[in-house]
Each structure stands twice: as C-alpha cells, then as structure tokens.
Amino acid sequence: MKFTLLAAALALSATTAFASAEKYVLDPSHSQVLFSYDHLGFSTTYGMFSGFEGEIMFDQENPAASTVSVSMPVMSMFTGWEARSDHFMTEDFFGASEGDMVTFTSTGIEVTGEGTANITGDLTMNGVTKSVVLDAKLNKVDQHPMANKPWAGFNATTTLVRSEFDLGQFAPFVSDEVEVQISVEAQKAD
Q1: Which of 8, 10, 110, 130 has its CA 20 to 30 Å from the CA of residue 74?
Q2: pLDDT of 46 above 50
Q3: How many domains does the structure of the chain reveal?
Q4: Which residues, at least 6 apart from 155, have a Cβ–Cβ distance to it below 8 Å?
C-alpha cells in the first residue's frame, strides 16, 4: 500500500512538473544561426541558417526542466556568395541533397544565473551526432505587441570543431573551429 501511494505521489509530482512547461514554437522569420570561421588568417567569413523549425517546452518557474528541439535544412545555408554555398553542398563538405537536416535536441539544462543557462544537447550534422553545450541567455518573455500572444526570445553561443562532423576540408588553413551565434524568437503554441 505504501509503495502504491509513493508511486502515485511521484507520478503526480512528475505530471505537475511537466504540466508547468509550456510549448513555444520557433518563429522562423526571426530565428537565425550565424557561423563564422577564420579564412587563411586574412579574414573572418560568415554564413547563416534561417527559416528553420523547432519547439521549446519552456518552464519559467523551473528552467532546468525545459527542453529544446530544432531542425534546419542543410540547403538553407546562406553564405553571401553563391559559389561558396554551392561548394559547401558538394562532397568536399556536406554532400547535401534536399531533405538533409541539421538537428539539435537538448539532453539537459543547467541554470547558471538569472536568465542564463548551459543547454547540453545532441547536435546531428552531416550524419554525425555529437554532444554540444550552448551558452544561452533569455532575452525576454512578454506579450508580443502585434501578435497578442506570449512570446520569448533567446540568444546562445557555442564553438564547434567542424572536423568532428567530417567537415574538416582545408583545416588548419581554414579554421577547424567555427563560432556559432544563435538568436531565436518563439511564440506560445495555441
């Protein structure tokens, strides 16, 4: 009997904790992933992914209980120079075709301060999955003045080693480390 009551109490507390997380969906028109790398020591080269999909199960009272899941088409990459973008899609790098995705699914969140956290998750890119940590910041949670619904904004940064994802062509002349900056907006789901 005690075991049954304990199990019921644990189930209730788990349900209550889960119930406090609210689903937010990414606004693809205001969500971007920027990346940059050193090019032969002469310049810093930039690129971007945008128009991607994802959701955040956001628990404002207990942010560590939140989760993040995002996916973006590899072919949505924009580099500002068509020949470079085309080269990135060849076998030298992604060997990409329609439907190839970059995905991130959180596996844990460690709150590091007021509105900041380290989000650990599985990043899958070019057929390789690695654990990465995003240094994240909550920018704002408020009513969106035009959409008239709750909205949230986040920024995050990380550094990736591209050779770990079988994308190391021309390293070390073109830096193996890629700096990543993420900025997303998400609206509370209906």
Answers
A1: 110
A2: yes
A3: 1
A4: 136, 137, 139, 181, 182, 183
